[in-house]
Amino acid sequence: MSTTTANLLYLLTIAAFILCCAATPSTAAEQAVSNKDVAKYLTEAKDLAGSKRWDAAWAALEKAARVPDLSPYTKDKIDEYKGYVLTQQHKYAEAGALFEQLAKSESASADERNDRLKKASQLYLRVKQYEKSARAAE
Question: Model's pTM, two decimal places?
Answer without folding.
Answer: 0.73
